[in-house]
Write a structure and sequence with these properties.
This protein has 219 residues and is of the alpha/beta class. It has a single domain (5-183), classed as HUPs (Rossmann fold, 3-Layer(aba) Sandwich), CATH 3.40.50. 32% of the residues lie in helices and 16% in strands. It has helices at residues 18-31, 55-66, 77-80, 87-97, 109-112, 121-125, 186-194, 205-214; strands at 5-11, 35-40, 72-74, 102-108, 129-133, 155-157, 174-177. It binds adenosine-5'-triphosphate (ATP) and magnesium ion. Adenosine-5'-triphosphate binds next to helix 1, strand 4, helix 5 and helix 7.
Length: 219
């Protein structure tokens, strides 16, 4: 039986923005995943805690952003896990929840370049597929240099609209997917809010309203 394909888009989502939605939209269109889980981290292991909205607020904004998108699902798996979030543990939990599914970690190339700082990253790379997408400020090809090229044989550039074929999944791969990424970051959004500038159309309207109502990121 051909397994269900599930994408995992993890992040701080502090806050979720239109750049994240663009990633998920293009990955879904180009790779034949059946759904993408958006997984806000509980305590981001590699970030300063200053300026990070509570897990509840970040999760609420993800839910608002995904309302009405049947294939995009807000997942509380890391929020509920309390403590620090580690992808290797998330992977085990997702596998238990979706037995038989093919799992794909979706990451921007900026995040992938830091994979050596992730816990058990070697095990993760050899136990799951990855889809690495473009992000302004980086070239997608930079992903090949990661781990001094040790995972080069696993790297598989995808072109145009070619969907991922089932026989490509016989080993764990790192797919490189060029997308039309948007030049939006959560860091920029937080700075805009702090300095009183508009974030309209950088985040979904419901997220903008939530940030205003809860007075997030205003120092
Ligand atoms: P921050 O500025 O706080 O780091 P961010 O905008 O990078 O926030 P994250 O929550 O850190 O957002 O990102 C989660 C995932 O989404 C990462 O894999 C990241 O590379 C990817 N990502 C975020 N924004 C974009 C974007 N505009 N284009 C492509 N990928 C993105
Ligand atoms: Mg980031």
């Amino acid at each position: 039986m051909v397994g269900d394909r599930i994408g995992l888009l993890g992040g701080t989502f502090n806050p979720i923005h239109c750049g994240h939605l663009r990633v998920a939209t293009e990955v879904l269109e180009k790779t034949r995943l059946s759904r993408i889980l958006f997984i806000p981290s509980h305590i981001p292991p590699h970030k300063k805690l200053k300026d990070v909205a509570s897990p509840e607020d970040r999760f609420a904004m993800v839910r608002l952003a995904l309302a009405g998108c049947r294939r995009f699902i807000a997942s509380a798996v890391e929020i509920e896990g309390k403590g620090k979030s580690y992808s290797i543990i998330t992977l085990e939990k997702i596998r238990a929840a979706y037995p038989g599914a093919e799992v794909f970690f979706i990451v921007g190339v900026d995040a992938f370049l830091e994979i050596e700082t992730w816990r058990s990253y070697r095990r993760l790379l050899s136990h799951s597929h990855f889809i690495v997408v473009s992000r302004p400020g980086h070239r997608l090809e930079e992903a090949k240099s990661v781990l001094a090229g040790r995972f080069l044989p696993a790297i598989y550039p995808l072109r145009g609209r070619t969907p991922i074929k089932d026989d490509w999944l016989e080993r764990y791969r790192i797919f490189l997917l060029p997308i039309h990424a948007l030049k939006i970051s959560s860091t920029d959004i937080r700075q805009r809010v702090k300095s009183g500038r508009s974030i309209r159309r950088l985040v979904p309207q419901a997220v903008e309203a939530y940030i205003n109502k809860q007075k997030l990121y205003q120092e």
